[in-house]
User: What shape does this take?
Amino acid sequence: MAGVAKQNILLGVTGGISAYKSVELARLLLKAGASVRVVMTEAAGRFVSPLTFQAVTGNPVRTALFDEKHEAAMGHIELARWADRMLIAPASADFMARMAQGVANDLLSTVYLACPSPVAIAPAMNTNMWQHPAVQHNLSVLEGRGVRVLGPASGEQACGDKGFGRMLEPMEILATLKKELQSMPFASKKVLVTAGPTHEAIDPVRFIGNRSSGKMGYALARAFQEKGADVLLVSGPVSLASPPGVERIEVQTALQMYEAVFENIHAVDIFAGCAAVADYRPEHASEQKIKKSADKMDITLVRNPDILAEVAALEDGPFTLGFAAETEKLIENARAKLQAKQLDMLAANRVGEGMGFERDENSLRVIWSAGEEQLPVQDKQLLAEALVDLLANRYQANE
Ligand code: C5P
Assistant: This one.
């Protein structure tokens, strides 16, 4: 699963003398087992002919945004969807500026905006250009948005100047990419995480809900995303920002969460049910605020669907990870839940007496049918990363 092999790599080539090195880069990527498609800017075509890339990759090379023939075959949106990752090498100062500003005035810049997959750039330019505050500013904007920056290297440049600005050698770019992909066990995998509580309305101002800050689910979504997954977060009401690069659907109730999950579950490889879903909802929610006139009040509750159990029961469904918050008999209850819901993995934690909810730290006992592991008390982000690593092992073993 890891590595460059079987990856769809969209190689973007922009205008710079080192564009000639990208021909070798395309060849190396292909040799490593990747599928490569090349999109060139007009300026790149002045340094290397599109025909050269076409001959090396065996695929047509795209240069123009408005190309009737190609838009019918693989248009800019299809190209963006096709790519498991984009690699822009060389990335010129001009192209970095257009990326930073979101300018979509040619095919490559348009594909970049439309591409949800990870993007890496290998900058190449004169050393004074590289050091210019404008370029450095664009660089930090791009890095802040999660663009991976490879290089540049220092050394003698085509123009005779010395210093930083040379594009990394194709072998170095390939090695960096390979290393990165090896630590990306979920590259091209789609993960759906539910997080937070659900609020079940009693009337327009009151609800029944579970105590949950959503911190663990959000940490998990971030950890999956950082390991290469395409993550959809279905979140109950919480006051947390979405992790960068994670798509979020916001819901209030268990039924809405159920709907959002089942609308998207068909394409999902891994489902992590981290939400504290309310097991019951009031049978009827009052349309008006209920007045406190009576001494006693009865609310009839009806069961909500068990989202996780229904996902786990799907034929050819995703790998399932469930959570169990228990106040007693942690392992016993967790094993029973793993069995009853037919889960692939379950993470259990003790709650109550200052443990679990609304805290930044937690510990987990992770169990699966033939084993278990204790993850010690630590910051929830680190805990989520350790859990995702464990899950990667089980997931790979299952595959
Ligand atoms: O059975 P219990 O509620 O303890 O199970 C907890 C696990 O099941 C969690 O992973 C939670 O996200 C999931 N769950 C669910 N839908 C429910 C109740 C729980 O997905 N209605």
Remarks:
- Residues 194, 254, 273-275, 277, 279, 304, 306-308, 322-324, 337 surround cytidine-5'-monophosphate (CB under 6 Å).
- The chain is about 35% helix and 25% strand.
- The chain has a mean pLDDT of 92.
- The two ends are 10 Å apart (CA to CA).
